């Protein structure tokens, strides 16, 4: 059972100000001692939320960089033999970069949900405050993970398909548009993750 404790007590009382939640088993000594699931409650909800923001941004940028690495190196190599492909195949690089933009967007949205705790004496009970904090922390964490993972997969998918698109276009220009459709569907994966992440955190608020 998580409890609420103050960082400091304001002079003259006056309600709950700057409180934090923590669990009941801080130092379990072995598998049979303490409440192991409660260890998660000893991690600050702000830590969970911050980790979610970090994963959303870092995994998205990693996916974009990985995709650009794959498709960019192939494009440069194929353009040596077929210079005509270097301009229109840059759209593959743009699709890869879009996954990083999705990560930046969700990171800004999630960061806007973080704020200091300031609860007046007529507001929610400590247990309700604690539940709200952990709900917000976990939802932001998993939303960030979901967005980051989908953008990572999307970036790699677009990179590989973009690489194939450049090679196919170098051999047969009529294949460019057909393979570009595959890239568009791969890029849509990142949009799905972004939408789900926003929905997951719509009720999260510190």
Automatic annotation (TrEMBL):
<dbReference type="Pfam" id="PF00137">
    <property type="entry name" value="ATP-synt_C"/>
</dbReference>
<comment type="similarity">
    <text>Belongs to the V-ATPase proteolipid subunit family.</text>
</comment>
<feature type="domain" description="V-ATPase proteolipid subunit C-like">
    <location>
        <begin position="141"/>
        <end position="200"/>
    </location>
</feature>
<dbReference type="GO" id="GO:0033179">
    <property type="term" value="C:proton-transporting V-type ATPase, V0 domain"/>
</dbReference>
<keyword id="KW-0472">Membrane</keyword>
<keyword id="KW-0813">Transport</keyword>
<feature type="domain" description="V-ATPase proteolipid subunit C-like">
    <location>
        <begin position="51"/>
        <end position="110"/>
    </location>
</feature>
<feature type="transmembrane region" description="Helical">
    <location>
        <begin position="90"/>
        <end position="110"/>
    </location>
</feature>
<keyword id="KW-0406">Ion transport</keyword>
<protein>
    <submittedName>
        <fullName>V-type proton ATPase 16 kDa proteolipid subunit</fullName>
    </submittedName>
</protein>
<keyword id="KW-0812">Transmembrane</keyword>
<feature type="transmembrane region" description="Helical">
    <location>
        <begin position="175"/>
        <end position="200"/>
    </location>
</feature>
<dbReference type="InterPro" id="IPR000245">
    <property type="entry name" value="ATPase_proteolipid_csu"/>
</dbReference>
<feature type="transmembrane region" description="Helical">
    <location>
        <begin position="46"/>
        <end position="69"/>
    </location>
</feature>
<keyword id="KW-0375">Hydrogen ion transport</keyword>
<dbReference type="InterPro" id="IPR035921">
    <property type="entry name" value="F/V-ATP_Csub_sf"/>
</dbReference>
<dbReference type="InterPro" id="IPR002379">
    <property type="entry name" value="ATPase_proteolipid_c-like_dom"/>
</dbReference>
<dbReference type="GO" id="GO:0046961">
    <property type="term" value="F:proton-transporting ATPase activity, rotational mechanism"/>
</dbReference>
<keyword id="KW-1133">Transmembrane helix</keyword>
